[in-house]
TrEMBL record:
It holds the Pfam family adh_short. The lineage of its organism: Bacteria, Pseudomonadati, Bacteroidota, Flavobacteriia, Flavobacteriales. The chain crosses the membrane at residues 214-231. The keyword Membrane applies. This is 3-oxoacyl-ACP reductase. Keywords: Membrane, Oxidoreductase, Transmembrane, Transmembrane helix. The keyword Ribosomal protein does not apply. InterPro entries: NAD(P)-bd_dom_sf, SDR_fam. It comes from the Bacteria. Belongs to the short-chain dehydrogenases/reductases (SDR) family. One of its GO terms (molecular function) is oxidoreductase activity.
Length: 241
């Protein structure tokens, strides 16, 4: 398995869930911009599951030498790359913040996804799992820079799923709602609408095994976002969401 964004609590919980369920991987490739933290997780996988893994440094904000990845081969890719950035009030007109949100969540991420998608296409097998966000379902004033990047990523995954279908490669889009992770620490999240990494991992694993196309981590979010998407614009623009 290839894991992009392997310091993510959700990514790590998914890896553990898959191994607990008996999935077999010759090697797990842990791509990370934080090598020290990821190496601790790699040691954990070795001790708990006797699972071989390899930590590979990847910083999307730096130039990428794709030749380093020539020997990375797998049948599953799990992408949990994400960057929330500063909220709209604090960061809307901070161009560095805006660029970083767009780069990490979309523009610098897609070429990496394409690199591995091409390998899957050539092999005519594989599953790609991409974590997008409910924030991409409709632009809301509270986080529309982040939401716009995730909307682009959702559209990319949709097109990739369509393109790879007859190449025998499946693409699964995951749309988490509120998540209790480091990225959302300190935010006032409704506990009834918030999933833990373990809950998310179980939901994603179920969608993975059932070869879903699109799945919300908590089913309630599909209803919430259906309502939000269908609010008429003349009303929606007046709301504080």
């Amino acid at each position: 398995m290839i894991v992009l964004g392997s310091t993510s609590e959700v990514a790590q919980a998914f890896v553990e869930k898959a191994l607990q369920e008996g999935e077999k991987f010759e090697k797990i490739y842990l791509f990370t911009s934080n090598k020290e933290t990821t190496e601790r997780f790699a040691r954990h996988l070795d001790v708990k599951f006797l699972q071989q893994s390899e930590v590979i440094e990847l910083d999307l904000m730096k130039e990428i030498d794709y030749n380093r990845f020539d020997n990375v081969n797998s049948n599953v890719l799990f992408c949990a790359v994400g960057y929330l950035g500063e909220g709209t009030d604090e960061g809307l007109y901070d161009n560095r913040n805006t660029e970083r949100i767009i780069d990490i969540n979309y523009s610098k991420l897609v070429p990496v996804m394409n690199y591995f998608a091409h390998k899957f296409e050539n092999r005519r097998s594989g599953i790609i799992i991409g974590l997008s966000s409910v924030a991409g379902d409709r632009g809301r004033q509270s986080n529309f820079i982040y939401g716009s990047a995730k909307a682009a990523f959702t559209t990319y995954l949709s097109g990739l799923r369509n393109y790879l279908f007859d190449k025998k490669v499946h693409v699964l889009t995951i749309k988490p709602g509120f998540m209790a992770t480091k990225m959302t620490e300190g935010l006032p999240l409704n506990p009834k609408l918030t999933a833990t990494p373990k809950q998310a991992a179980a939901s994603i694993y179920k969608a993975f095994k059932n070869r879903k196309n699109v799945a919300y981590v908590l089913p309630i979010w599909s209803i919430i976002m259906m309502i939000i998407r269908n609010i008429p614009e003349f009303i929606f623009k007046k709301l504080k969401l």
